[in-house]
From TrEMBL:
Coiled-coil features, chain-numbered ranges: none
Annotated signal sequence range: 1-23
Record domain Fe/B12 periplasmic-binding: where: 56-340
Organism: Streptomyces solicathayae
Name under which the protein is recorded: ABC transporter substrate-binding protein
Keywords recorded for this protein, A-Z: Signal
Pfam families: Peripla_BP_2 (PF01497)
Phylogenetic lineage: Bacteria, Bacillati, Actinomycetota, Actinomycetes, Kitasatosporales
UniProt similarity note: Belongs to the bacterial solute-binding protein 8 family.
PANTHER family attached to this UniProt entry: IRON(III) DICITRATE-BINDING PROTEIN (PTHR30535:SF7), VITAMIN B12-BINDING PROTEIN (PTHR30535)
InterPro entries for the chain: ABC_Transporter_SBP, ABC_transptr_periplasmic_BD
Amino acid sequence: MRHPARLGVALTIALATAGCSTAADGGSKAGAKPAAQAASVTSCGRQAAFAQPPKRTVALDQTSTETLLELGLQDRMAGTANLKTKIPAHYAAAYAKVPVIAPKIATGEQLRAATPDFVVAGSADLYTEDRAGTREELAALKLPTFVSAVDCPQQNPAGKTPFELLFSDYENLGKVFGVEERAGKLAAAQRAAVAEAGESAAKIPRGADRPTVVYLYSVFNGMPYVAGKTGLPSEMSRIVGAKNAFDDVDEDWPEVSWEEVAERDPDFIVIGDLSERGRPGDSAAEKRATMTAHPVISELAAVRDKKILEVPGIELDPSVRSVHALGLLAKGMKDLGYVR
């Protein structure tokens, strides 16, 4: 993280929780249920039932891997795949215990070779015929699967926010693995962090318009990719009293033009730093350089007046890390003068 911030008590608790979930307990201590006790959860429209907690789980992406590590479940993991950025230092020892079955997206052959008894993914698109296999195919092999509730809009209860859906993932996985106490503490700490960040909205002067923000995720082939209506940044904006300038685009991360960014003329810009991913246009420095060199974007007040915040790019997608980016956003708005 480029610019660590002093956050309040609740967010500090949430980050401390993220830092202490190392390999020591293996998910088998506090809150664990007897191995013979059955569990059942519904995930993205499919039921996953277990006679006992899984022992050989495969996580198909970094998001689900870090969630399982946060819950202390590394000793029950048979594999991980699709690492996009470096694993945080506080997960390193636990992550070292988990076999990497594929550096990128896992295939069905790689998944089956790991002989899992449970498969977890942050997004439904990892379960396709040309990837790990469809959930129907895996069910026919009596292999239960899990998808983050955040990626299941049709099956979600009405009115549940993306953060609440994320926290429901922790609680459902806690139930499956018999670590309800740890999952409950994690969800509670992160709920407190969200509530604290939300206090910013109450401190925006009465009568003031909500400041608008553009989230610049990536620049690919010279074109900007920004947060649209369905991505987590729109919810982050709402929580802290801002407005996503591209809330009218019904996508997570649409490609737009620089001219469209200029037309929205945001009050401030949030850059997602994806330096560790290493593609052209991923680093915060490259994004800044592109904007300052652009004949139109360089004239925007947000760029001219350096009203630019940087957050780790991976934290702008729903994950166990996202409350940290939310805290940086809340603090950044205060530093920019939008909050009393």
